[in-house]
Give the backbone structure.
Amino acid sequence: MSPAIKAYQLVLLALVIWREARGAGFKAMIAVGYSIMNRVKKPSWWGNSLVSVITKKWQYSSMAAPNDPQLILYPQENDGTFAQCLEIAQWIINGNVDNPVVGADSYYDDSISAPKWATKDCFVAKIANLNFYNVDKDVEV
């Protein structure tokens, strides 16, 4: 894989972490990143690479839902939280930080009603305002 593609993957993962979890704290940002990586490690209908998983239509509202206000937000150069998200993304890609949501491939925020897929038997962890689930339990990561 070319260095340019690796850089693209890193920035894209950091952007999702920033958009989805920047206000939820360090551990939640790591958990969001790992939930994406967990999907990559168990290829399915949602993709088989960081780019295909992140850009899958309707999977990450901050990246694809027209009504999500996060969709049009981008971090600025002096955004310390985005710099932290870049570090977290690099740690996750390199496996240099523990996965706090082993197996989790989905999550939702407390600000919305629990989706139908958020069943008790699929629950993995709650971190800050985010609820993590292993919806595709047939595959371990």
Strands lie at 106-109, 123-127, 130-133. The chain has a mean pLDDT of 88.
